[in-house]
Amino acid sequence: MRRFYCPYCNEDLTVLSGSAFKLKGILSSDFFDCSSLFYLPSTPGHFGALFDEQITIKEGARVNFCCPNDQCGRSFTTKYDHDLSQIKMLDENSEESVAIFNRIFGKHATFIVDYQKKSLRASYGEDKLEYIHEFDSEIDLIW
Ligand SMILES: [Zn+2]
Q1: Is the pTM of this model over 0.70?
Q2: Model confidence at 142: pLDDT above 90
Q3: CA 30 / ligand 1 centre spacing (Å)
Q4: What is the whole-number distance in angstroms between the Cα of residue 126 and the centre of ligand 1?
Q5: In the predicted model, is pLDDT for residue 5 greater than 70?
Q6: Which of 109, 117, 130, 142 is the most buried (most CB within 10 A)?
Q7: pLDDT for 43
Q8: Going edge to edge, which strands form the sheet with 96-102?
Q9: Domains in the chain: boundaries
Q10: Model confidence pLDDT, tens digit, residues 27-82
């Protein structure tokens, strides 16, 4: 089973018997902010998110995904690409990877990077080609 962690405080983000992970998602506009817990499928290449039914998100909206632990609350947005978020993942063999996913609602791009080798292990989603160049050279994974 895959497990997901906050790279900053090590909070276990894995929920629903390993089938999903939870993040705090903040939506901002010029006039207000709102936030909800988001549940994303833990199988790379499966897309879609569950969140508060009171919220309507339009395609193209950027969600600021953060650690749901209030003591931490750090944003998972990457330093190398403003459209991407990254968290720590341990796979079935307890190998450490980085799960990288798109912040833009309606876009589908997920990348799994080997943490030790700093190289791309797998990529998923019909929008991946837009971002895959980020992984051509050694990736700056500094959390
Ligand atoms: Zn955290």
Answers
A1: yes
A2: no
A3: 26
A4: 29
A5: yes
A6: 109
A7: 94
A8: 3-5, 84-90, 96-102, 110-114, 119-124
A9: 3-135
A10: 998 898 999 999 999 999 999 999 999 999 999 999 999 999 999 999 999 998 99
Locate tokens 């796979």: which residue?
91
Backbone torsion region of residue 107, taken as left when φ is above 0, otherwise alpha when ψ lies between -120 and 50, otherwise beta: beta
Residue 121 vs residues 27, 28, 89: alpha-carbon distances, Å: 30, 33, 13
The residue behind tokens 């050279």 is 137
For 79-117, give the secondary structure using H, E and C. Answer: CCCCCEEEEEEECCCCCEEEEEEECECCCCCEEEEECCC
- Expressed in angstroms and rounded, the spacing between residue 87 Cα and the centre of ligand 1 is 10
**How many whole angstroms from 98 Cα to the centroid of ligand 1?**
15
Q: How far does the centroid of ligand 1 lie from the alpha carbon of residue 11, in Å? A: 5
* Ligand 1 centroid to residue 76 C-alpha, Å: 9
Which residues are bridge partners to 12 per DSSP?
5
**What separation in Å is there between the alpha carbon of 41 and the centre of ligand 1?**
19
